[in-house]
Amino acid sequence: MEKSKIPKITKIINLVRIIKEFRYIKKKFKPDIIHAHVANGAGFYAVILGKLFKIPVIITEHSPSNLIISGRLSYYIVKYAYKNSKYNVCVSKHLMNELNRIYPYIKFDVIYNPIRIPKNLDNSILNNKQLGYINISFVSVFYDKYIKGMQYLLPAIKELKEKGYKILLHIVGDGKFQKYYIEKSKELNISDFCKFYGYCSKKQVFNIVNMSDFMVSSSLTETFGCAIAEALMIGKPVVITNSGGPEDFVNDKVGIIVKKESKEELVKGIEQMIRYLNDYDSSYISKYSKQKFEMDAITRKYMDIYEHYKLNN
């Protein structure tokens, strides 16, 4: 991860602009709470605004700790943000444990990301389901060449093909490295086993996942794993790597966890899922995940936090 190359004078200009814009926001809307969604950057500026305008700040952290803190300066910037916010939330127990290790005297709580399933999923996309094949969904934004583990997943699909499995991997998402992996699938002679959809709307993503038999995630690191939670919400079992956040909520009743950075582990996990696919209870998976991620319940938790700090400011 490259360090920021933004000149210090630019950062100062940005802060002046932010303060100016927030002065207008405060005058027009009179906000009770400032809610930032990462500490490094937004959280730091939010805390400064909170002090200047006497408004309580809370921070929800979504980023992996190694990306939040890339050096000594970022360590202290993030520490300042967490220490001066009223309430710090992590989107998984894994992330909370990492931050507790780095900042042992700062309190963090866990609130999962909220998920809402679109109504009336379009079953016409079921026409893309290759009959006689195991249909597997994979959702990613290819902003990074390696973070989503495709360098292990595609060779795993090649090995499964060579073993005689009939698999179609439905790959959703775009980004600058999408073409790289399209070419890689051709090099591995598995392009007939991979369908790249590119960019899809949120509803299209749900439709494709709904059409699949199960989802696979080969990520190297995830603070939460929204795509995994979404698949569970519509009753799909998952094969995931031990990438962090998803391990909080994936158990043997809803999926399989394998070691990350391993083609062999992915092959093993997918084979096991295919073998026991009919043993998974879709209605149980959906009910289990809705209890954890349902939008209204998560929103209520945040509303209670907002009300508490509004009244106690």
Largest β-sheet summary: 6 strands, parallel
| Percent of residues in beta strands | 5-15%
Q: What shape does the CA trace take? A: elongated
Q: What spatial order of strands do you see in the largest sheet?
A: 7-6-5-8-9-10
What fold name goes in the CATH topology slot of the largest domain?
Rossmann fold
Looking at CATH, the homologous superfamily of the largest domain is Glycogen Phosphorylase B
Taking the alpha carbons of the first and last residues, their distance comes to 38 Å
Total domain count: 2
Helix content: 40-55%
Using DSSP, what is the number of strands? 10
Q: Over the alpha carbons, how many angstroms does the gyration radius reach?
A: 22 Å
Order of helices and strands: HEHEHHEHEEHEHEHEHEEHHH
CATH class wording of the largest domain:
Alpha Beta
Number of helices: 12
Tell me the CATH architecture of the largest domain. 3-Layer(aba) Sandwich
Mean pLDDT: 92
Q: Which stretches are poorly predicted, pLDDT < 50 over at least 5 residues?
A: none
